[in-house]
Amino acid sequence: MDRHIARPSHHRPPRARHLLAVSLAATLLPLTAAPAAAAESSTVAEQVTTDRCPWGYTTSSTVFFGQAGADSGVPNLDLGDGCTILDVVWAKAPFADHGSFVSTVSGLANALRQDDVVTPEQSASILRAAAGSEIGNPQPAPGNRAVPDDRIGLVLYTVRATMPTAPEATLAALAACGYRNAEPSGAVNNFYGKRAEALAPLVADAGLSVPSIGIGLGDLRNNLDGVIANSRAFGAKYVRISGSGSWTLDDYSEVAATLNAVGAELKQAGITVAYHNHGFEFTAQDGGVRGYDVLVRETDPDLVAMELDLYWAASVGADPVELIKQYPGRFSLFHVKDMAADGSFADVGEGSIDFARIFAYSEMAGVDYYLTENDNPRPNGVSSACDSYGNLRALRY
């Protein structure tokens, strides 16, 4: 299925009734210097000549503040200068506390209502969603909660050495030590040398479920029918891809457009597309913008999830808790990987990453599954995987 998916335009048409909103956005968003003539202009069209938010939240989503109960249902409107409602809100982040967050949203919602950008009912819905969110609230780790066993899985990349030659024995060993879920990685019709239709029964016979499969971006672009067929063969409700360290911000934006487009089609099949990070996505590029920010802000949260690899984020100084606080509700999948003292991979619970602190934010993150992984397992994949499972089951947060 060949597709050419165009990069979304960042130059959005202004709305004449948005004068007050644009003025507010200009106050909160010192991203791009306004034209000298803007202050003297009498119309929004004359005031706005450039997009002040070239990489920001698009109009494809609603005004959404994370977890269940925090979706206003109100369209994330363009305020006339390329900045959307969510752009204006998050320009004030981080928030000192929940009250500061609600105050920011309240001021904007009231201004939009007064300017007839939103109706009184929509303004009230935005404020209710903000009040119902956990944004700004610290999430303590009292130490009496456990990760649900039925939400723990293994990324089969950990056991890639034995999956091609001994899949039945490998899967049986994983099930024997407690795993109930697995995430195969590969490409359409090639998972450890087997077609999905051949591997899926072996996984099921071992007593494992497959909530997610890993595929390539090319599969999404060129063989979406195959992606859907493979997902259905495994019974997976997520398909995830990874990116490239060579991407520019424009590339990230184009990929975001791809994810939105295929995400809409996958949703019709009951599947959600997800993006799995490494470390390079967190390198600041033009204007201090990170590729990861482009991916999250330009993808529709109803269509696209993020699979947050905790090791890779931590390896480049990107705090998973701060990411969750910045983008609540976007992280349906965690890759739970630990870091040794020398920066290499460690079995979960035997390294330096404070998983209890991160998992305390699980509800805010929107986590569905916790998938353990070790890219360089010792002494072997199964032993490493079982160590990680036991340690994760014993963890309290």
Task: Walk me through the structure.
The protein has 397 residues and is α/β, with parallel strands linked by helices. The protein folds into two domains: 16-131, no CATH class; 149-394, Divalent-metal-dependent TIM barrel enzymes (TIM Barrel). The protein has helices at 19-28, 44-47, 85-90, 98-114, 120-131, 167-176, 196-205, 217-222, 224-234, 249-268, 291-297, 310-315, 320-326, 355-359, 362-365, 381-394; strands at residues 62-64, 71-75, 152-155, 182-183, 212-214, 238-242, 272-276, 304-309, 333-336, 338-339, 345-346, 369-372. The strands form three sheets. Strands 4-3-12-9-8-7-6-5 form an eight-stranded parallel β-sheet. The protein has a two-stranded antiparallel sheet with strand order 1-2. Strands 10-11 form a two-stranded antiparallel ribbon. The longest helix has 20 residues, at 249-268. It is globular and about 65 Å long.
CATH class of the largest domain: Alpha Beta
- CATH architectural grouping of the largest domain: Alpha-Beta Barrel
Shape verdict: globular
Average pLDDT works out at 89
Structural category: alpha/beta
Beta strand %? 5-15%
Measure the end-to-end span. Answer: 45 Å
What is the third-level CATH name, the topology of the largest domain? TIM Barrel
Q: Biggest sheet: strands, sense, closure? A: 8 strands, parallel
**Helical proportion?**
25-40%
| Tally of separate domains | 2
GO molecular function: isomerase activity
Keywords: Isomerase, Signal
Protein name: Sugar phosphate isomerase/epimerase
Pfam families: AP_endonuc_2
